[in-house]
Amino acid sequence: MGAKIKVGTCGYGRYQPPRDWKKNFKSRLHAYSDIFEVVEINKTFYKLPMVKTLKRWREEVSSDFEFTLKAWQALTHQTSSPTWRGKKAGLTPIQMKNFGLLRPNKEVIESWNETKDRGEALQANICVLQTPRSFRCSLENEKNMRQLLSKINRGKLNLAWEPSILPSNCIYSSAWTKSRRIRLQL
To answer: Looking at the domain assignment, is residue 8 inside a domain?
Structure first.
C-alpha cells in the first residue's frame, strides 16, 4: 500500500466556499475542512495568534483534519528582514538583536516555546521552519541549527525545514557533505 497524500493549502483565507455555506458550516475554516484534509497555518509566521483562538479553530474541524503551522519568524528571521515590517512593536532591544537564524539563545528558544504552544493548541503534526535567503550554507548556521534543535522540546511536533534558497554552495560545499544534505540528524 502506498503512502497517503493529503491535499490542502497554505492558509484558508482565500478559499471561496459555495454561496450558501453559512447554512451548513459555522465558519470558513469549517467549510474548508469539508473539502480539504490539511491546512498550513501561515499566520503563525508573522504574528502568533492567541492560544485560545487556535483551540477554537481545532474545535471547528473534525478530529482527522490536520493542521501544520509555520514557526514564528523570531526563530528564523532577523528583525532587519522585510518580513518584520510593522511587527516590531513591543519587542525588547534584546529580542531585536537576538531573534533569527536559528541561533541557540534564550530569545529564540522562548520563541520556539511560544510556537510549540500554538502547535499543541492546533494538535499540529508538523511545524515548518522557513529560513530566509540570508540563511546561507555555512558551518556557523549548521552549528546553530544543530544546537538549537537539540535544546528545544519538540513535544509531538515534527519539524520540516523550508530553506528560501538552496544555493549551489550547499550542494557542493565541503561544509555540507552529501550525508548532511540528505539526513541532517536533528
So the answer is: no
Question: Residue 172: which H helix or E strand, with range?
Answer: helix 168-172
Question: What are the b/e assignments for 9-39, b being 16+ CB within 10 Å?
Answer: eeebeebebeeebeeebebbbbbbbeebebb
CATH number for the domain including 49? 3.20.20.410
pTM: 0.86
Query: Is residue 141 in some structural domain?
Result: yes
CB distance 132 to 81 below 8 Å: yes
Question: Is residue 115 domain-resident?
Answer: yes
Q: Would you say 146 and 180 are in contact if contact means Cβ atoms under 8 Å apart?
A: no
Residue-wise pLDDT for 49-77, tens only, equals 999 999 999 999 999 999 999 999 999 99
CA distance 41 to 50: 13
DSSP state letter for 131: E
Say if 30 falls within a structural domain.
Answer: no
Residue 78 in grid coordinates: 532577523
**Enclosing domain of residue 82:** 37-182
Domain count, the chain: 1
Count the Cβ atoms, other than its own, within 10 Å of residue 185: 8
**In what helix (H) or strand (E) does residue 51 lie, and over which residues does it extend?**
helix 51-60
